[in-house]
Design goal:
338 residues, alpha/beta, Nucleotidyltransferase, domain 5, 3-stranded mixed β-sheet, 9 strands, globular
């Protein structure tokens, strides 16, 4: 009701009547293996989404509440679900499986799913448009760097690999998430610190990442300020963060047999020019000629960050997940009305 009231507000709203709402699009975090694209929401779809709740217990219930609310408030308005995980459903089996007993995958569907798919899809397409390159003929590494962060390898128009796994904890170092972390070290800590599963989960999700290393903040701006004032742990956190990004760029370039475009997006990727520079430092061997002069100070702009002679193009692109959700919803609704 609050959202509808805002939309209808006489001074600040954009609608005169709620009947002007033609469709509602929802971002849904986890679609498991059930959804490989955006869909119109029916009771059958809701049932399938409820089956995925165990895969994202913090996010999917809230996504479902939004759907239930619209069902109650706007019962005749079509709704569409756009899934964070859908874009990555093109990953091959040898990429998405974990090396655990296969029977556990069969039973629980434990595998790499990946997240931020809507963002990775948008910025990879946008980068190709800006660079006038054929999306289906190039290899792209997209770096979505925010408080949550992930990297995707997009091979000739399809997601080939991505750093997040079954959950958003795996992969890059993040604001308060550990990223890649030895399970043996976790078992060791659980024993020494007397941690149960909930406390161990809180440790890697809420107390780790750059926050845990620096002891200062999960906000990169605070870390840069602290590092400039001589805080060694803040600088260490920044160095670790950039190193992990660089490590994944190199790994994904190898996995795809080369890379043509590296994209930076998300709050950090779009605005933190030092993280961009440090992440690309030393990649000259693979054809990256990073233009430090162009990069310095650039925030929130779609801009090419590599030199004109660079074999691998580096570009910053502002993501727009809301536009993807709106566009997908419009296309699906058009299909319904045909």
């Amino acid at each position: 009701n609050l959202i509808i009231d805002i939309l209808l507000h006489p001074e600040h709203g954009v609608l005169k009547d709620k009947n002007e709402i033609g469709a509602v699009g929802h971002r849904v975090v986890h679609g498991g293996e059930k959804f490989s694209g955006s869909v119109v929401i029916t009771q059958e779809i809701i049932d399938k989404m409820e089956e995925c709740v165990d895969l994202a217990p913090l996010h999917n219930p809230a996504n479902l509440k939004g759907i239930y609310a619209i069902n109650a408030l706007l019962p005749n308005v079509p709704q569409c679900g756009v899934f964070d995980t859908a874009f990555h459903q093109t990953m091959p089996e040898h990429v998405y499986l974990y090396a655990i007993p296969y029977e556990l995958y069969d039973k629980y569907k434990i595998r790499r799913y990946g997240f931020h798919g809507t963002s990775h899809r948008y910025v990879s397409l946008k980068a190709c448009q800006l660079l006038n390159m054929d999306y289906n003929k190039v290899n792209i590494i997209t770096c979505h760097l925010g408080n949550g962060a992930s990297i995707a390898a997009i091979k000739q128009g399809k997601s080939y690999d991505t750093s997040m796994g079954l959950t958003p904890v795996e992969g890059l170092i993040m604001g308060s998430r550990s990223g890649d972390f030895d399970l043996g070290a976790m078992f060791f800590l659980m024993d020494k610190e007397n941690l149960d599963c909930n406390k161990a989960n809180a440790l890697v999700n809420k107390k780790s990442g750059v926050l845990g290393i620096s002891g200062v903040s999960m906000d990169m701006r605070d870390l840069h300020n602290a590092a400039e004032q001589g805080n060694k742990r803040a600088r260490l956190a920044l160095d670790m963060y950039a190193y992990r990004v660089k490590k994944y760029i190199g790994a994904y370039a190898a996995a795809m047999g080369g890379v043509d475009i590296i994209v930076f997006t998300g709050g950090i990727g779009e605005n933190d020019f030092l993280i961009r520079e440090w992440s690309c430092s030393g990649l000259e061997y693979m054809g990256v000629e990073f233009d430090k002069k162009v990069n310095d100070g650039v925030k929130g702009k779609d801009i090419v960050l590599s030199k004109p002679t660079s074999k691998v193009k580096v570009i910053a692109v502002s993501t727009n997940e809301e536009l993807v959700i709106a566009t997908d919803t419009l296309e699906i609704v058009k299909g319904i009305k045909k």
